[in-house]
Design brief:
CATH architecture: 3-Layer(aba) Sandwich
Domain Flavodoxin: 4-143
Largest sheet: 6 strands, mixed
CATH superfamily: Flavodoxin domain
InterPro entries: Flavodoxin_dom, Flavoprotein-like_sf, Protoporphyrinogen_IX_DH
CATH topology: Rossmann fold
Protein name: Flavodoxin domain-containing protein
Structural class: alpha/beta
Number of helices: 7
Number of domains: 1
Oligomer: single chain
Bound molecules: flavin mononucleotide
Shape: globular
Distance between the termini: 13 Å
Amino acid sequence: MKGLLVYQSKHGTTEKVAQRMQNLLGEEYLLININTTSLPNLEEFDRIVIGGSIHAGAIQKKIQAFCKLNLDLLLQKEIGLFLSCMYKGDPALKQFETAYPESLIKHAKATAITGGEFLFSEMNWIEKIIVRKIVGVKESQSEINFNAIDDFIAHMTT
Ligand SMILES: Cc1cc2nc3c(=O)[nH]c(=O)nc-3n(C[C@H](O)[C@H](O)[C@H](O)COP(=O)(O)O)c2cc1C
């Protein structure tokens, strides 16, 4: 079984989660940052995990385009979908539902909302203002949901 893990990350959180998932899933998963590395031929893979993060209500455009462009092929594979975000509960679920195509969510073997981080050292000045003034968070926070990652891996590997 050959696996591919495709992700995009703005401040590094989704990258950390993707690396942890690759460690847990095993070496047969190829890890690809869609922002920096060209994609391999998707036909070669049996399982494809896709991950991105929410910034101002939406997942990265490249992840959206990847899902849309390859939807027919993705629907023939074993799929895992995960999302980094700071919202929790229903608002997080709503974000997840708009991040990925409905048919892909229904088809997925595993889905997860894996929490997120506010990393001030990685933010530009506009992001710092948004997070300080609008969100009301003044210091870096790390709220990666490791249980959600473990559940995701369990679903993906059974
Ligand atoms: C400017 C900014 C806007 C954000 N907007 C949202 C949002 O709309 N909803 C949400 O749940 N999280 C939001 N977040 C939190 C991110 O999803 C979180 O920082 C995540 O860990 C980023 O992952 P990444 O570093 O892989 O991009 C925002 C973070 C920043 C810095």
